């Protein structure tokens, strides 16, 4: 079977200031034709999992992805949709498609961007079967589910099963080719959850997933997933979802399992509530404790959730409290370039961070020495997209009082230990490490963290998700099975 590979991936924080542009996609992934596989074969990405399938003639078509931030502007999203459509038309006849999506992408004029992409797909290739993979933080709409025969989401957070989910989607598409009539059912709750409560190796998610899987097995369903949702998005499809893949004829069983799982989630609502110390309290605890290293999770400046990475609340407190042996990463292109111009060994004085908006703190004046300047490139051996190359842009390591300050040109989520080791910083020798994330940083530093303090910092990804203003009302969707159809309109 001739199977196309297509991707569009972006976790959109509608409260973030920076809009995604074509340049942001070009910096992460903007590939067509053979480049799609060249960038993903033998890596831990979803498309890397698609590429592992030996049973199909794979036709790489188009893939675009960018680090999380604000919505893509209209020029960007329409250019991406146009490129995807043109590449699909050039690919020739296809028997099916494997599609890598996020599920929480929003763009100007396209509040349900993934459905808009699949509309382009359906209008181009018709009713051929589609199998798609979503992030665990997806906010899938009923229209998105209606666009696919098979829709699965990651099972893990931190996300370490992306390649496995790509393989699973390819296998299930093969079952469809063999004559199996698969369908996907969905149900939704308007429950908005901080990512701190979504870790799948902790409660309540661990037991929710285990009980849901047991129900699905007992009912003879093919698969069940619990996309925990992305709360930092002001769209009506936001919230927790349950997806059930089942054989045609098992709609009633799928609805029952979804309904029971939604009821289970509702019973755990209190377990999803989160409260943490403010920056001043958290820094005092980290300095006073004997453990090392202590990871201070800068939750509201979660780069992996769309924040700019230039929050200064923890940096300011570490300096004010005279912390020693602390490592802090801040995204500040101007300071990174200034350090590069001054050169290694030079003295530097600058206002660092707080330049994107006032939501993440004010710029902090620092005086120190330039220790290292690099191009910020590294290839990860970690568990998130293993084997892929990433770039932080020009990156400078500064020594400022008792702090090692890593200043990057581009905000880069702390998903990989190589983010520090590639610039000569030994995280194991630190007393304090500031990680600009909620949970996913554990893939990089979880194995060395002697203590973790999650901090209620200010920013676009606050722990208190109810503090964000909302213009839309999250939907409630009872368990429903859709039959995939062509021509779904965005």
From TrEMBL:
Domain Microcystin LR degradation protein MlrC C-terminal: 296-469
Membrane-spanning segments: none
Sequence ranges assigned to domain Microcystin LR degradation protein MlrC N-terminal in this UniProt record: 2-287
InterPro entries from the UniProt entry: MlrC, MlrC_C, MlrC_N
Protein name (Swiss-Prot/TrEMBL): M81 family metallopeptidase
UniProt source species: Dactylosporangium maewongense
């Amino acid at each position: 079977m001739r199977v196309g590979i297509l991707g569009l991936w972006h976790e959109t924080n509608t409260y973030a200031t920076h809009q995604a542009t074509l340049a942001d996609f070009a910096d992460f992934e903007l590939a067509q034709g053979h480049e799609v596989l060249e960038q993903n074969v033998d890596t831990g990405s979803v498309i890397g999992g698609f590429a592992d399938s030996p049973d199909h003639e794979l036709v790489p078509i188009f893939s675009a992805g960018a680090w999380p931030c604000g919505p893509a502007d209209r020029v960007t999203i329409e250019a991406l949709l146009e490129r995807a459509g043109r590449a699909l038309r050039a690919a020739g006849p296809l028997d099916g498609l494997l599609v890598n999506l996020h599920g929480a992408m929003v763009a100007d004029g396209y509040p349900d961007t993934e459905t808009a992409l699949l509309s382009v797909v359906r209008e181009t290739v018709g009713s051929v079967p589609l199998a798609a993979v979503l992030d665990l933080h997806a906010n899938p709409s009923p229209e998105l589910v209606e666009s696919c025969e098979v829709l699965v989401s990651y099972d893990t957070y931190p996300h370490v099963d992306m390649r496995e989910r790509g393989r699973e989607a390819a296998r299930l598409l093969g079952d469809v080719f063999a004559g199996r009539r698969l369908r996907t059912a969905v149900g939704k709750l308007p429950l908005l959850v901080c990512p701190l409560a979504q870790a799948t190796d902790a409660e309540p998610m661990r037991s929710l997933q285990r009980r849901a899987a047991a129900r699905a097995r007992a009912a003879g369903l093919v698969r069940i997933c619990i996309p925990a949702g992305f709360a930092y998005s002001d769209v009506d499809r936001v919230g927790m979802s349950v997806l059930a893949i089942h054989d045609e004829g098992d709609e009633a069983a799928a609805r029952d399992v979804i309904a029971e799982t939604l009821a289970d989630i509702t019973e755990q609502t209190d377990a999803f509530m989160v409260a943490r110390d403010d920056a001043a309290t958290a820094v005092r605890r980290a300095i006073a404790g004997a453990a090392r290293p202590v990871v201070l999770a800068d939750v509201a400046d979660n780069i992996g959730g769309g924040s700019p990475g230039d929050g200064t609340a923890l940096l300011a407190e570490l300096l004010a409290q005279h912390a020693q042996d602390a490592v802090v990463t801040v995204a500040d292109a101007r300071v990174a370039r200034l350090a590069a111009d001054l050169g290694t060994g030079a003295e530097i004085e600058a206002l660092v961070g707080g330049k994107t908006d006032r939501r993440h703190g004010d710029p902090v004046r620092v005086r120190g020495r330039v220790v290292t300047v690099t191009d910020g490139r590294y290839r990860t051996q970690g568990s998130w997209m293993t084997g892929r190359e990433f770039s932080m842009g020009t990156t400078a390591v500064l020594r400022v009082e008792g702090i090692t300050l890593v200043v990057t040109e581009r905000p880069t989520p702390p998903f990989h230990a190589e983010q520090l080791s590639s610039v000569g910083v030994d995280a194991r020798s630190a007393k304090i490490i500031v990680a600009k994330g909620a949970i996913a940083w554990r893939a990089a530093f979880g194995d060395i963290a002697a203590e973790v303090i999650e901090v209620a910092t200010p920013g676009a990804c606050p722990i208190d998700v109810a503090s964000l203003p909302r213009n839309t009302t999250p939907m409630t969707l009872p368990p429903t099975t859709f039959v995939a159809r062509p021509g779904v309109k965005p």
